[in-house]
## 1
Amino acid sequence: MKVLVLGSGGREHALCWKLAESKKVSKVYCAPGNGGTKEIAQNIDIEPEDIEKLMEFVLKERIDLTIVGPENPLVMGIVDRFKEKGLRIFGANKKSAQLEGSKSYAKEFMEKYNIPTAKYKRFTDSQEAINELDSFNYPLVIKADGLCLGKGVVICNSREEAIVCISDFMEDRVFGASGETIIIEEFLEGVEASLLCFVSKGKLIPMESAKDYKQIYEGDTGPNTGGVGCFSPNPLFTEELERDVEEKILNRIELGLEEEKLDYDGILFIGLMITESGPKVLEFNVRFGDPETEVLMPRLESDLVDIIEKTLDGDLKKEDLIWKSEKCVTVVTTSKGYPGKYEKGKGITGLKDVDKNIVVFHNGTIEKDGMIYTNGGRVISVTALGNTLEEARDVIYKNLGIIKFDGMYYRRDIAKIEYLPIK
């Protein structure tokens, strides 16, 4: 098979890396790819949003399967367009992709099908939003309705902070049209957890659990990022919690998908907050998570192509997903200034000198004349398996001393967090 992966981040590198293991795959392409994917796939200079050009390429090269990495093309309807041409593609269709493309749509879906989530209000007028602030306690959460690359969520600790945030989103348009509508919701206390599911004809088959780190600084402080570290499995996911999530969340999502006739095949990423009163949904994403994919793919024993084909054919069963018992950790290095304005074009050294049991997934890199340079806010995800989380993280932090680029930053507390007991 010839397989095309769309995207240019660590998630796409991890998918290409896993696909390259498959005996079914003769060639992997990545559009546009990065400095890391170039080593295992053929990079194609087409952006994931250029749907017509991608279809031309797929038809010309007779690509057997296209896998969509980022959310933008899904929200734009790439799956619908490919299917019209009879092309095999893995990802949510346009209607289903609203679960990520519009936070208000997602909240209404949760409310309608009694899926536990934070209480919220939706606003299209900034003054009305400000007037309603007194109906919330602090801290509260403000979210831009549309896609913002994981950055359109702000926790506000005071009325003053909330007013500034509303003004930034709705008046100054820091996220463009994505902030024309906002959601204000209650702040949920607890511990975050990530659960990715394959969705096959509206049925959810969960992957192994993971725990990501969104805030830039140690101790979960500073602004939110696209994710600066992750590990799997998440120790919070006890059998009791899994039953709770299945009964109160997964079964109700399946009902909603059926009732709304969403005809969903692909991935559903469920962002959870484990609170004292049980699990609640923070958000939906309709694609593989990043950096979750970087810790799930190394743990996946099964052939990814087999799983995706069974998902598309409606044959996927839970027992098709076989996982290694080893734990996996990834630490993401970032460019100076990220998640704000950051620098690019810094040469990266040491990538070939790391231990053999380290996998380096490239998030934002570019290759020029045999040299790898930084090309994004998140640069590389340094990843390792271990019998324990401590073993994996020790190997990673030892090897992080070998890799260098100007302005390199990373958190030193990934996979070290002490969990508070949740009653």
## 2
Amino acid sequence: MDPVLTGLLGIVVLLLLFTLNMPVSFAMAFVGFAGFGYLVSWDAAASLLIRDIFTQLSSYPLNVIVLFVLMGSFAFASGMSTRLYDSAYKISGKMPAGLAVATILACSGFAAICGSTAATVATIGRVALPEMRRFGYNHRLATGCIASAGVIGILIPPSTIFIVYGILTEQSIGSLFAAGIIPGLVLTLFFVLTVFAVAFSDKNIAPSGRKTTMGEKLKALWRIADIFLLFALSIGGLFLGWYSPNQAAGIGAAGALLLGLIHRELTWKKFITATKEGLRTACMIMMLIAGASVFGKFMAVTTIPAQLSTWVSDLPLPPIGIMALICLMFFLGGCFLDAMALIMLTIPIIYPVVLQLNYDPVWFGVVIVLISQIAVVTPPVGVNVYVTKGIVPDVPIAAIFRGTFPFLVAMFVLLIIVLMFPGFILWLPNQLAV
């Protein structure tokens, strides 16, 4: 069979295995092994499978994933999310829609130590949703705010998807982290403005919270100073070139563990649970990378990426038109696949096209991360929406999806800005030269 047809058949089989709920990493490894064996030789395929899995799981650079995931697990177990929300509430609670604003600010703060969208939604949501409901917030605004604000967690470093993208494309993780900061902060601002706009349209949608004194606000800031110090020490030190990504992740994980002990929140039971959950998540990501590596080798011998790159370059469209098609593909794919799985599946095929079009790989990383995260709040998959539904089972899923619509508008506005002005993304990485 022609290699291209074999590759297309392999992609169809892979999607079929996804619908059968086969783990994504195993599905990619299986299809990659079978396809490579058919096109090259079964001995070569067996050697490829063993070598790639061993290489990825024993890779020193991949330790950064384990350590940053552990950092987020320890931060959650140490009660940092509760302190962040409580402080944000005391600072902004009295203003119109103050609790929703506090939720967005807390998501931004927790994103700086977590790096996972679903974890941010689950963690902040458990704290924020009961408070918003107690103050009579409209359930669509409350749930939509939580589901959408979790997206910030994947833009502001550390971000597991940025790490995986950097490993797959051999780009600097420090540059990707730096590129995510400005859009993450701008998205936070856009979400706050969105909440104000929704609250202005109807004063009963988002009542104000309790008034706090200036002393209480300052005390609230002091309570979370150590969290921002941890972020500055870990990520800031990486940007300044004091240490490598692995060292930054190790300092972050150790710092989160130490803060949990200092505040007497991290009990032995919580420590064991957090470590198990962190390692389980990290192993899942590393197996995804190993499976994607095998599948990528199969795609290479089918020549699909090379032929696709040539075909795209010959299209009678300007580069921005082709990039718009790529963005549409990622958005539609993200509506059905987990963001991590989508990036693992498509990067081996799409990345050569991006290079052919002379787009900056760091800029493209931010673009696809933003698009894939827009998809996590849109039907039918909408991972963040289902996580929110798990916190408030009495709220209809359709109401949560409707609640995310104003925030989706803000995300699409940011996407347009990123697409039209690449310098908006690349300015900080160029300044830091990481």
## 3
Amino acid sequence: MLPGTRRALLHRIAVGQTEGRAPSLVGAVVRDGRLVWFGSRSMIEGHAPDTDTQYRIGSITKTFVAVLVMRLRDEGRLELTDPVGRHLPDAGPAAGLTVGQLLAHTSGLAAETPGPWWERTPGELRPELADVLGDAPAKHPAGSRHHYSNPGYALLGALVERLRGMPWGEALRAEVLEPLGMTRTTLLPQQPAAGGFAVHPWADVMVPEAVQETGRMAPAGQLWSTAADLARWAAFLAAGDDRVLGTETVAAMRAPAAPADATDPDGGYGLGVQLTRRGDRMLAGHTGSMPGFLAALWVSVPDGVGALVLANCTSGPRVGAIAADLLTITADAEPALPAPWRPAGALDPALLDLAGPWYWGTNAFGLRVRASGELDLAPLSGNGRGSRFHVEPDGTWTGLEGYYAGETLRVVRRPDGSVSHLDLGSFVFTRQPYDPQAPVPGGFPGWH
């Protein structure tokens, strides 16, 4: 990393620690899957934390729980459309909510548990799921809006336990943490670990915060981790890892699954993954807070860059913004070099027959065949909708983005085998505008 970039990153966390009045604050940058920069600031000279110092990461825990659920999905043990009660008999009034709604916070469940405040009281006060949900947990109709719900993730943790036959933390360690080498991510703190503090809002004094084991609510925010381990997690959220979840499943987790809240139009939520827009970049990750601690982690997949920030105070530094700034500083100062263009080794001649101009009515589109075998369809005039398409085993193509995401593209051939037209979700694309030899609804005689 260039010296100027390193200086800018250090300056950002130094300002964040000072202005946020944090006892300590650490920041890290991940590029192309590995930790490339780490910096820390502390109130005690000469005792700044290092990459192995644990902090509580709060709701970043939810990303780990979501991965466990998606593993069950990929194994065929459940579907995201399943009512959670199908797998979790003690789900009570939440039994009809779907797994996907719980992951995306669109279930309509309450944001918090019935009193007392779960983050600051022992988990033994809520031994059963009924204690987490209360008598009337629904605050909104299911599926109607994004409404963040911590109890919803308690349900997901219980779901994992039910289907795996073991505590969710044990499943996490065996299925996720050990394969990824995240040995310093734990349910309870293990030294060296930062102590959590509450800093007085109107005076430069502070007091220690108590650490509670949250029991049933642990899947919502229990985990502790380090900068080194979270760098591995950032790399995983950006690219996946076949030992845990494949690239396509992780990409599905990062895709928007819930609308942005009206108060945060640049936000959004995937499947256990928080989304935020910074300029032209869509970042994916999560923020977290628990008494005494703040955390944030973001990745930008197109840039190949991720960043994280950890602090040991209940409030103060805007860790989400600081982490986003670290990512932006790196991506803007040292943009990734594109992969070299290389020709395809071999392409099916039938694919080459599809390349070139096509017309939707009078609107011209270009279809390009990539070396990967994917198709790119894009308007030549700048007006219209385009998409990339991935081939399916039956010879059709599925849209990967935008308006045509999930839609089917078919090549329609004449009896002699020549290409008549493309059918994209019933839209007809022809080689000539209103081709008289193709069935174009709305065409008219005499065009040619």
## 4
Amino acid sequence: MNRVPVKSSLIALALVATTAATTALVLPEATAQSTTAASPQAAPPPQMVTGLPDFTNLVERVGPGVVNIESTIGVRNAQRTQGPPLPDDMPEFFRRFFGPGGPGEGVPGMPQGPGGRHGVSMGSGFVISSDGYVLTNHHVVDGADEVKVTFSDRREFPAKVVGSDAQSDVALLKIDARGLPALRIGDSRTLKPGQWAVAIGSPFGLDQSVTAGIISAVGRANPYAAQRYVPFIQTDVAINRGNSGGPLLNTRGEVVGINSQIFSNSGGYMGVSFAIPSEVVMNVVEQLKTTGEVRRGQIGVQVQGITTEQARGFGLPDTRGALVADVLPGSPAQKAGIERGDVIRAVDGNPINVSSDLPPIIGAMAPGTRTTVTIWREGRTRDLALTLSRLEEATASAAPTRPSPSPARSSNPLGLVGQPLSDRERSRLGLEPGEGVAIARVEGLAARQAGLQPGDVVLSVGRTDVGTPAELDRELGKVRAGQTVMLLVRDANGGTQYRAVTPRVDADQ
């Protein structure tokens, strides 16, 4: 969270004002006469540019309901709110953004305690009901000791955090006030790329700033954050630090989203912004009002996308769907008969085109909901009924001990040298007894290009489970040059994923 140097901004404004005053004193006589001749009674000149959108009416009506959010984070909460650093070498990633003086930058004059930096973060928000309910982002108020809401007419109110949800990045606030200008909530499901959108907020602490653009895409997944239950709205509306929590509006002045993130390799606006759809927001709001927390359903699978090579390896007609890489023991998916290697193609008739479509659909359902999942398995589709359990975010993952290189040479076409796993290593990885073979060495080029490396654990070859190096060699021995084989692999971080490998005809496979 960056702090805008207020002093330099005031100096810049002062210089502008001084220049304007000086110019007024030295205007030539002809210019002064021309200015005097333009009396208020004279007819205004005709518009030279027509047909462009004019958002003035929208802003006048909606603007009073958009507020500035100021969160004070003290020493006692600084450590909890200090998240892991973002990787500097990542060329592009999603960023959340704050106004000046946010945690992570600190505030001059405030001591830097042992728990990390702390200070004041500034974001945006908007009123959703006349009796004082206000929405903003979770990351704007996360860990705050005090939250203050300021209206455009400079009225200030202390706010209580009714509830906050990190997964959706939505926070519901309550202030003690009545007769407030509430914004209307629109239907984000009707949005289409190319439609106009407007944002109002407080970038860099500049209240009531208005920007406009178009909807660039809908249903975007976030590959770099934990918000897998949010199908983001992508826009080219200019969004910067301090816009967090402000409304994204359609041309009717209805809220269709909450501005939350940007996609940037510099931390500043680069033409790609993301908002949380109003459909997701209002689902969260109702749950926060009722219980103070958000409960999501789960089926208990780990899924991945499908490449063309993987589709060929599984005999799929296309790349649509979510490939099941792992099934949690005792989960609704396991009870319903879903297996590794299945491809989820639809939920209650709603198509799953890419793997990121699945979590928002399932997560929007309450635990205990009965649903039907359509899967593809071995050349045909089948419908499986199941009842959702409650999503538990706390999952333990421990990296396995990397096996020492084996002196043995590979005896399979992929050039993989297997090594047995100990019971302790299997327990650490969450594997059953006799499940999985560690990779000690990768000799084949195709396997290396597929991302396989020592320390990975092969769980199955195609749909056949393997538990010993001999079983791994036997199954891989059936693979012919040019044939794509699917390996289910658990990596050193505990993630499970299918890898498609196609050994080449030449000797250096």
